[in-house]
Amino acid sequence: MSERRYQVLPPDRAADAVETELLARWREEQLVARSLAGRPGAPEFVFYDGPPTANGRPGIHHVFARTVKDLFSRHRAMLGYHVPRKAGWDTHGLPVEIEVEKALGISGKQDIERIGVEEFNKRCRESVWKYREEWERLVERVGHWLDYEQPYVTYSNNYVESEWWALRTLHDKGLLVQGHKILPYCPRCGTTLSSHEVAQGYEDVEDPSVYLALDLVEPPQRVDGNPVTVNGLPATTALGGKPARRRIVVWTTTPWTLPSNAALAVHPDLTYVEVKKNGRDDWTLLLSESRAGAVLGQEWESRWEVVGRFTGRELEGTRYRRPLDWLPFEDGEHEVIIAEDFVTADDGSGVVHMSPAFGADDYAAGQRRGLAFLQPVNARGEFPAEMPVVGGKFVKDADPFIIEELKARDVLWKAATLTHSYPHCWRCRTPLLYYARGSWFIKTTAFRDRMIARNKAVRWNPPEVGEGRFGSWLENNIDWAISRDRYWGTPLPVWVNDADPTEIDVIGSYAELAEKSGRPLPADFDPHKPYIDAYTWPAKSGTGTMRRVREVIDAWFDSGSMPFAQWHYPFENRELVAAQYPADYIAEGLDQTRGWFYSLLAIATGLGDALPNNADPVKPGDAAAPYKAVVVNDLVRDAKGLKMSKSRGNAVDPWSVMERHGADAVRLFLVASSQVWTPRNFDESVIREGAGRFLLTFKNVYKFWAELANFGWAPSADDPRPDDRPALDRWVLSRLAGVEAEANRQLLNYDATLAARAVMTFVDEDVSKWYVRLGRDRFYDVTSPDNRAAFATLHEVLTVSCRLLAPFAPFVTDWIHRELTGTSVHLADYVRPSPFPVDAALDAAMSDVRALATLGRAQRETVGIGVRQPLGELVVFPLLRDLRFDDSLTGLLAGELNIKSVRVATDFAQIGTAEAKADFKVLGKRAGKDMKLVAAAIESWPAASVLEVYFGASVHVTVEDRTYAVGPEDVKVTLRGVATDGRWAVALDTIITPALRTEGMAREIVSRVQRLRKETGLAVSDRIRLLVAGPAEVHAAVEEYRSWITGEVLARDLVLSDGISENVGAVPVELDGATAFIALTREG
RNA sequence: GGGCCAUUAGCUCAGGUGGUUAGAGCGCACGCCUGAUAAGCGUGAGGUCCGAGGUUCAAGUCCUCGAUGGCCCA
C-alpha cells in the first residue's frame, strides 16, 4: 500500500494565493511551452490571436476575450492537437499617435510636423510598449496560455515587408487602385479630421437654405430613351393644350456645391406630386407630397392642384437641367434623377442634390452609378480663379454670389437661412468641408462575391452574426480605403513619378527597394517615415523622379495580414504557413465584425492563391479561409447593465477582481453565466455566489475524499474493477462518462457555456449532493472492497472532472489533479480512451430513486417525523402506465430515508385517497343543466374510479336517462395522504413501534455524541471514553445498540450510569420525552 | 439618423417548429440534518414574460408600433 499523502486544499485559502503559486510552478516547469509544443506527431489545430494595442491598460473585457480564446485552445490541446498560439501586438495607427500627442502636449498634424516626424515616430515606437508588461502579466494571470516567446509585432521590419509583398501582389492583380474618399477636411489647417475630432467640433450655425426649381427635360425620357409612363399612360404634362414647363424642387444648404451637381436623388418609395398653381396652366412643380406643406405653405392644397402623382422609383431615369453649367462634364452620367434609400422626407423637398465630390452618400451613389465627378475646389477651399462669378473665392463666401446667379437664371424657388448643427475644426473653428481626397483603395468590390462565398463557409458562433451583421456588411461592401495621411504606420509602398503621375512602382520587398534605389539598405534600415521617403530613383521612362506617396496605411491592414506577416511569409517559413493556414478558429469581440474579421477576410480573399490553401472558389461546406470558425463574444457591462467607461467611473479593474475571486471563478462566471455572444453584467456578488460557490463545493468534495483517503487508501490492483462495484459507484461512473462526452461534444461545437454548465451540474448535483451524500460512510474505512470501490470511484470522478473543467478553471483543477495523479491536468487527455460506459437503465433508475427520496422527505415533513427516527415502510405507487419501480436500488432509498423497507403498492387505495372535482368550465358546456348533478356524482366516485380517469380512461355518469362520458380533461384530481410529483405517489408507514423507538433513540445518542466530539475539538480519529446516564428507556437503547454506538463514535469504553450524572462536563440531551446526560473524555 | 441584439421571479439564466398550471440555480422565509460543516436536505413565498396593438381556436413564442439598455455605422 502506498504511503502517499494527499494534500488538502483548505477551503479558506485565498484563490489568489493558490493561483499565484501555481503560476510560479508552471513557469518553473515551462508548462506553457510544453503545451505549446504539443505531442509528437500531433495534428494541427490553429488559433490566430487578434493583436491588442498595448498602449492602454487592459480591462475586464479583455479577461473575457482571453478566457474564450484560451479555453478552446486548451480543450484542443488536451485532445492531443498541436495548437499554435502566437501572441501579437498591434502597434501602428491613430490611437498610438493620439497617445503620443497627449504625452507631448501637442495636437494635430502641424504640431507633429513642427516637432519632426522622425522624433514623433520614435515616440510612437516607444509608446506602444507603455503597458506591455501589464498586458503580459494579466494574460498570464488569467491563465491564457499564449506564445509570448516570439510575438509578432506589426511595426517590425519583417512584418512590414510581408505587408509590402501583399500590397504588391494586390497591385499586380489590379486590386490596389487610386480613387477618392470623402473626408471631413479643414481648409484652413489643410488636414482631414478623424471622426472623433469631428465629434468635438459641432456648432450651431446659420447656413443658407436654398430651394431650387430645376427644369425637367421635355419630353421626359428615361435614360434608355423610352418615355416615362405612369400606370401605362404617358406622363408628359400638357396643361390648357400647350406644353407646360415642368420643374422639380431641390433643396440644399451648400449652394457652393451646385456647380458640381451631377444628379438628383429621390427615395424609391416616397410619393411625389406634380402640382400646378390655381389659374396658372403654363408650369408645374414636382416634389415630395409630405414636404409640400413645408415648401408651398401650410394650406397649399387650397392654392395648388395636384395634376400627377409618382413614386420615386417611377421618377428614376428622368432627365433635368442642372442649375449652373460653369464646368464641362467630361465623363460619367449626369443630369439624371436617381432613386436612393438614403433620401428622407424629414426636411427639404424630398429631392436631394448630388455632388459626388462633396458628400459621402453622393460619392457612394456616384460610384455605384458612374456619375460625373466635378471637384472645382482646391485644398484651401477656394474655387479656381478662372471660374465665372466665384473664381478664387472661399466656398462658404461664395454662397451669396451663387444664390444671386441662381436667381438670375430663374432656377431659384426660394432662399432662406437655416440654423443647424454643423461640424467645425475643433482647433480653428473653420467649418469643415466634406471633400473628396485622393486615396488608395483595395478594390474589394471586385471580389465581394468571393468574400461572401468564403463567409458562407465559415462556422460562425453565433450563426446570426455571420449571416446578419457581417453578411449584410459584405453585401453592401464598398472599396476599402487603406491609405491614411498620417505618420505612424506601415508606409504605403507606392512610388510615383513626380513628372508623370501615371508611372507607378509598387515595391514588394526590401531587396527590390535596394535594387530600385541603387544602393544597399543600411543595417539599421527602418521602413517607417520619414526615412523611407528619402528613397527615390530616376523614373524608368527617363524623365522625372520616383518618389514615395506620403501616406501610411490603415492599421487594420496590419492586423489582417497576420496569417502570413507573423511568419515573414513569403520571405521565410513557407512550409510553416502552409501548415498553419487557414486558422481553425479565431475568437474576438463583436466589435471586430467590421474590424479584424473583415480585414482578415478581405486581404486573404484579395490575395487568393498567393497564399497556401487559399484558392477560390470556396463553397459552403468547404474549409473556409482565412478562418474556419469564429467565436464572437459580446461586451462586459457593469452590474446594472450599463456600459463600462472611464467617464462613468464604473470600469472594473481586472487585478482587484482577480485578487478577490481568483481567475478560476472569474473565468467560470464569464463563460457559464450566459452564452459568450450575449452581453453580460459584471456583478461580483454573482461571481461569489455562482462560480465561487461552485468551486468551493468542488474543493470540498476533494477535501472530503483526500482527508479520508489519507487514512491509507491509494489506487492499487486491490480496488474492485468498476463492473464489480456497487450500483452507486457504477451509476456515478456512468454519469461521468455521459458528462465527459457531452462536455467534449459541446466544446467541439464551440458552445463553452453548455459544456461548462454540464460539468458544473454534474459535480454539484450528482457528485456532491447525491453520490457523496449517500456514500459518506463508505469512506470511513479504507480496507474493505466496498471502501476501496468508493475511494477508487470518487478518485476517478474527481480526476476526470478536473480534466473536464480545466479549460474553464485551469488553476484549481491543476492543483487537485496533481494531488490525485501526480501530473498536471493540462498534459492530460480531455476524454478517456475507454471510460466506464454509460448505463442508461441505471441512470433512469437512479433518477427515480432521487425523485422518490425527495417525495419521502416531503412525506416526513408532512407527518412531522424527523429523518433520525427510523420508520418501517415506504410505499410507492407509479402514476404513469409504463412506470415500473426498479428495486435494485432499494437499499439506497431506504438508507436515505431511514426506513426498513420499500414496497410497491398494487392499488392506490392502499396508500391514499383520490378525489375528483368536475371542471365546470369544460364540462359545463356539455352537461348544461345537469351540471350540478354530474359534479356531485364525480365527487362521490371511489378512489378506483378517480384513478381510472386519472390514467386517461372515461367514466360514464348517468343523470336520469342522460349519460356523460367524463374524461381526464373534465376533472381535477387531488391525491391525498401521499406525496406526489405526478409520476410517483409515496406514503410512509408512520407507526413507531417500540423497537423503532429504541433504535431512534440510539441514533439520537450517536448524533449528540458526534456533535459533542466536534464541539470538544476532537480529531475525527480520536478515541473516547463515553458515559451515558438517563432513564431506563435510554439504558435499554444503549444496551441494545452498544456495539453500533461505540463503533460510530469511536468509543473504547461506554459506561452506563443511573440517575442524573454528576460527572463534570456531562451534557443534557432531550430524547423524545426522555432526558439523558452524556459525557465523554478523550482516550489517551 | 440608419441597422442589429436584448428585455421572462430580487439576481443570473432556460424556455426547437405557437399548445395543459411559464421553469432552474442563487438569494429570501420556515423547517430538517449535523465529522464534507464558511457544507448538506426539504418546504414555501416570489411573475403585468418591457408596453400597446394585431394575427390565431390558442402568443413568452409570430407581425406592427413604441420604451429602455447595448453594439455597429453615419
What's the short version?
With 1084 residues, the chain is an alpha+beta fold. Strands 14-12-13-10-5-17 form a 6-stranded mixed sheet.
- What is the tally of beta strands? 42
Radius of gyration computed on alpha carbons: 41 Å
Count of individual helical segments:
35
Question: What is the share of helical residues?
Answer: 25-40%
Amino- and carboxy-terminal Cα gap: 28 Å
Mean pLDDT: 85
User: What structural class is derived from the secondary structure elements?
Assistant: alpha+beta
Which consecutive residue ranges, at least 5 long each, have pLDDT under 50? 221-225, 230-234
Approximate strand percentage: 15-25%
Main sheet: which strands, in order across?
Answer: 14-12-13-10-5-17
Overall, the morphology is: globular
The profile of the biggest β sheet is: 6 strands, mixed
Describe this structure as you would to a colleague:
It contains 35 helices and 42 strands. α3 crosses α22 (654-672) and α24 runs antiparallel to α25. The longest helix is centred in the middle third of the chain and has 26 residues, at 684-709. The chain binds one RNA strand of 74 nucleotides through α16, β30, α23, α25 and α28.
Q: Which descriptors would you attach to this protein?
A:
globular; 38% helix; 6-stranded mixed β-sheet; 1084 residues; alpha+beta; RNA-binding; 35 helices; 4-stranded antiparallel β-sheet; 20% strand
Secondary structure elements and pairings:
Elements: H1 15-29, H2 31-37, H3 60-78, E1 86-89, H4 94-104, H5 109-115, H6 117-127, H7 132-141, E2 147-153, H8 157-172, E3 176-186, E4 191-192, H9 195-200, E5 202-215, E6 229-230, E7 233-234, E8 238-239, E9 242-243, E10 245-252, E11 263-266, E12 271-277, E13 283-288, H10 292-296, H11 300-303, E14 304-311, H12 312-315, E15 336-339, E16 351-354, H13 360-369, H14 395-408, E17 412-423, E18 433-442, H15 448-457, E19 459-461, H16 463-475, E20 480-481, E21 483-484, E22 494-497, E23 504-506, H17 510-517, E24 537-538, E25 545-548, E26 552-553, H18 555-560, H19 562-565, H20 574-579, E27 586-589, H21 596-607, E28 629-633, E29 636-637, H22 654-672, E30 680-681, H23 684-709, H24 727-748, H25 752-775, H26 785-805, H27 812-821, H28 840-863, E31 871-878, H29 890-897, E32 899-904, E33 913-918, H30 920-927, H31 931-939, H32 943-950, E34 955-959, E35 962-966, E36 971-976, E37 979-980, E38 984-988, H33 994-1016, E39 1024-1029, H34 1032-1040, H35 1042-1049, E40 1051-1057, E41 1067-1071, E42 1074-1082
This protein binds one RNA strand of 74 nucleotides through helix 16, strand 30, helix 23, helix 25 and helix 28.
